[in-house]
Amino acid sequence: MTVDAVELVRRLNAEERDLSFPLTAPKDAATLMLIDRSGPEPTVLLGRRHSGHNFMPDKFVFPGGRVEASDALMPAVGELDPRAAEKLCARVDAMPPAPRAFALATIRETCEETGLLLGHRREAPPAVPNGEWAPFAAHKVHPDLSQMFFVARAVTPPGRPKRFDTRFFTADAQAIAHRIEDVVGPNSELVELAWVPLSQAMTLDMPPITGVVLEELSARVAAGLHHDLPVPFYFMETRLFQRDLL
Prior knowledge:
The chain has one domain (5-245): Alpha-Beta Complex (Nucleoside Triphosphate Pyrophosphohydrolase), CATH 3.90.79.10. It contains 6 helices and 13 strands. It has helices at 5-14, 82-88, 99-114, 134-138, 198-201, 208-223, and strands spanning 27-36, 43-49, 60-61, 64-66, 116-118, 120-121, 141-142, 149-155, 164-172, 176-179, 190-197, 232-237, 240-245. The strands form 3 sheets. Strands 1, 2, 3, 4, 8, 9, 11, 12 and 13 form a 9-stranded mixed sheet that branches. Strand 8 and strand 9 (164-172) form a beta hairpin. The model has no long low-confidence stretch (mean pLDDT 91).
């Protein structure tokens, strides 16, 4: 797996950003980069945020959001690979959510923002922990965490108005078990969805870290998406971004 790590870090450090906001602890979050490898070139699913949002308006992003307490309670028909689970718990200062909660958060958020339900359809519905997971019960879709790969981690710099400690996952589009219509539209959080070739995705208007992680994803896909590959970790130290491997 080869990326120009020096160049990726340089790009993050070249970005001008206001770091004068009060210091806050980052909130645990998770994001899903769905890839479709059925064609001649892999494509990745990106959504454009509503222009009325205070946070990253009009930017292309991956579906994702904060990890909720109920995420760890959602049952799954397959669990995370233990190598991914171990990396998810590395380099944390306090007790993090259960590793499976990060992966399940991406599945829930992807459903909420895109209408796509990932997993397997069964005759009986899963026993969902609360209403946030109700679409999975309604459509009898059971998440499968064995389909999830941990690709990268990034922490928003101190001094930003919103801070997240985000774990980036990927899964193949074949994991889509059901589609709920009319979730994306002019009045939704995401106003459009696009399957974009990996080689073209970075030309879209997106946050710097999104472009950097896209390059990490491209390298990981080329290397075969193995769980034993190291996971890059981006964080700021003494006002400069660093890249370590988990």
